[in-house]
Amino acid sequence: MKTVKVGIIGCGSIAQHRHLPEYKMNKEVEIVAVCDINEQRALEVSKQYGAKAYTNHEELLASGTVDAVSVCTPNYLHAPISILALNKGVHVLCEKPMATSKEEAQAMIQAAKDSGKKLMIGHNQRFVSSHQKARELIECGEMGRIYSFRTAFGHGGPEQWSVDGKESWFFKKNEAFIGAMGDLGVHKTDLLRYILGEEIVEVGAFVQTSAKEFANVDDNAVCVLKTESGIIGTLAASWAYVGQEDNSTIIYGEKGILRIEDHPTYSLIVQYATGEVANYELGKIQSNDEGGQDNSHVIEQFVDAIVEDKEPAVSGEEGAKSLSVILAALESHETKQMVSTFLAIKEAAV
User: Fold this and answer.
1) What is the predicted pLDDT for the residue at 2?
2) In which band, very low, low, confident or very high, does the pLDDT at 312 lie, cut at 50, 70 and 90?
3) Superfamily for domain range 125-291+320-349
4) What are the two backbone dihedrals, phi and then psi, of residue 212, each rounded to the nearest 5 degrees?
5) Residues 142-165: pLDDT tens digits?
6) What does DSSP assign to residue 143?
7) Which residues contact 179 (CB under 8 A, 6 or more apart)?
8) GFO/IDH/MocA-like oxidoreductase domain: which residues (predicted)?
9) Cis ω before 312 (30° cut-off from 0)
10) Sign of CA dihedral 265, 19, 166, 214
11) Which residues is 5 bridged to in the sheet?
12) How many CB atoms are located within 10 Å of the residue 114 CB?
């Protein structure tokens, strides 16, 4: 099998700290191109990885030098760049949220089908060991019937790690489309769908800006979610957690409670109804704090899908279903009503 020649479009923090290092670690990949509208940034990254620098993604895609690209741009560019790449016969790994609307998401999925190329969305929480173990325990019936859950993802905000600080696109509605709910909340909607093994079909939400006065996107969101079997729970996404990052999930079941990423040592704690406790030390979740796992496994999953010609671990359809939940959350906040995601989920499955 020939080496997969890869280009990275958007050389900000996620590209520099996740995509580029993980591609470099992969023996089946050659990084041949990088692209950023900031020419100096593109040149610096290109020198570091021995790749050709571009400032225009259309030129990169027209060069015919890449088999696959990572799209690590501001959210509003995810769909148009991904669609162009797929139409050029290039495999795409797109950062989350995959798009800014269900129509964009569907257009991306259709472009992948028409081109026969892979489209994967970068939802890395599915590949965390504690999350995989929790899914396994639920799937095999160890927890019995699941009643409820609560999940949170919060930290001090992108200005702490973005290459552009407070000037980052994350805080600009015309580029980001959505704030903490799109940055962090979509991770958790995807995770809940993965762990519980069913769809979220109804959403009620408060989505607001309260901590970042310089931003015009949300920095705090709290949602009530209901799954197709009737499991109810809450999701919180925040850029206003001034202390340690919180990336925890707790699942309440008939036979016990799963505490995931809620302890400094044990990444999964199972508290059984019998009083027995099982502690799992599975390694820390990838985070902005020190000590998290070095490998998101997203890149290796994407490359494997290309090399082995198989369905990506997080397909465009899966990304669209997770996106539909945050779109419903926005609608719920605006209308002050519960919003069904059922239609969006059915459309994503077509």
Assistant:
1) 83
2) very high
3) Dihydrodipicolinate Reductase; domain 2 (3.30.360.10)
4) -105, 90
5) 999 999 999 999 999 999 889 899
6) T
7) 170, 171, 209, 212, 215, 217, 218, 219, 239
8) 131-258
9) no
10) negative
11) 30
12) 11
- Give the percent of the chain with pLDDT over 70: 94
Q: What DSSP string runs through 19-46?
A: IHHHHHH-TTEEEEEEE-SSHHHHHHHH
CA–CA gap between residue 138 and residue 131 (Å, rounded): 11
Contact 267, 283 (CB under 8 A): yes
Report if pTM > 0.90: yes
Mean pLDDT of the 12-35 span: 96
The strand pair at 268-272 and 277-280 is best described as antiparallel
The pLDDT tens digits for 60-86 are 999 999 999 999 999 999 999 999 999
Q: How many of the other CB atoms lie within 10 Å of CB of 240? A: 15
Least confident of 21-30, 32-41, 151-160, 339-348: 339-348
Tell me the domain boundaries of the chain.
4-124+299-314, 125-291+320-349
Mean of the pLDDT values across residues 235-251?
Answer: 96
User: What is Dmax (Cα atoms) for the chain?
Assistant: 63
CATH match of 4-124+299-314 with 3.40.50.720: yes
Rounded CA gap, 76 and 67, in Å? 23
For 86, 109, 164, 236, 281, the CA distances from 114, given in Å and listed in that order, are 9, 9, 37, 37, 44
CA angle 178-228-221, nearest 5°? 25
**Distance (Å) of CA 26 to CA 156, 218, 259, 286:** 32, 36, 33, 18
